[in-house]
Amino acid sequence: MRISSRIVFANLTQQLSALYARREAQTIAFELLEHFYQLSKTDILSDKYFKPAENQELALQEALVRLQKHEPLQYILQKAYFLGKTFYVTPAVLIPRPETEELVSWIVQENLSNKHLTDFHVLDIGTGSGCIALTVKALLPFAQVTSIDISPEALQVARYNAQKLGLEVNFLEVDFLTQTELLTNQFWNVIVSNPPYISPHERQDIAPNVLAYEPHLALFPPENLHSLIFYEKIAQFAQKQLASQGTLFFELNPLYASAIEQLVKDANFSEITIRADMQGKLRMLRAKKT
Fold it and tell me: Are residues 46 and 101 in the same domain?
């Protein structure tokens, strides 16, 4: 029997409204119906009638059960959107965030004028899904991009995304805190990182879906080290390994923006600029090697 897509959408939105604000519930309902029933937003708004298969209904019900346990939608659907591209994601990687899109846009804007260069190297530290490295490569195709992560599972996801998007990035398994010598055979024009930056006392403020499902390796610095260890080590490394006039880009923990700025100053960088994200939080830093 064929059924009304608009009625299915309304019922689904009502169920999801117990978990989310109504507008977010509607957005999730649209995504679920597109994913499991191949119904577009236009199909639903025009009240297309369709005949769901039993396996589709079962898959949707399973997704609803997982959502009720606060599992992120992106892990359930195994996809996330980043600057117009669709990335495969699993619990081995962080879900790409809009503020990271802003950081990548800044990197691209700063370096479009370098398209005449034939030897332009970018290093992405802590790649996760590969969203930074692969989007930079897509928008700055002249760049030679290398991307590292300590997690072999994360690198597997990133390599799959590179294959799916048809982009060439060199992915390496590297523990940045102990294996920087693996990265010293090259001077880099851009070094970028969205490092683990959540301090232990911030755990109580983290949303349950993030704390329970996203990889702690990518969220928290090692417990025996101070919270800004990655910023400190990356800044010191960048001062040695950036090419002349090279740039360092960080995504920031807004609570420590001033402290991170000081770390970068202590590493003898100049032209340090901090930008707020669309929510007004101090989220991005750029610095020049003198």
Answer: no
Same domain, 25 and 107: no
pLDDT, one tens digit per residue, over 81-100 is: 999 999 999 999 999 999 99
- 53: domain range? 3-69
Question: Strand, coil or helix: what is 249?
Answer: strand
Q: How many other CB atoms sit within 10 Å of the CB of residue 181?
A: 8
Q: Is 285 within a domain?
A: yes
CA distance 269 to 265: 5
Q: How many other CB atoms sit within 10 Å of the CB of residue 113?
A: 8
- Beta strand segments in 121-232, E: 121-125, 144-149, 170-173, 188-193
What are the tens digits of pLDDT across the range 150-198? 999 999 999 999 999 999 999 999 999 999 999 999 999 999 999 987 7
280 and 157 share one domain: yes
User: Is 94 inside a domain boundary?
Assistant: yes
Three-state DSSP class for 108? helix
Q: How far apart are the first and last CA of the chain?
A: 70
Task: Please give the structure tokens belonging to residue 2.
Answer: 């064929």
Radius of gyration of the chain (CA): 21
Retrieve residue 77's tokens.
Answer: 């659907």
Grade residue 12 by pLDDT with cuts at 50, 70 and 90: very high
Q: Is the residue at 262 inside a domain?
A: yes
Is the residue at 74 inside a domain? no
Q: CATH number of the domain that 264 lies in?
A: 3.40.50.150
- For the chain, helix (H) and strand (E) counts, in that order, are 12, 11
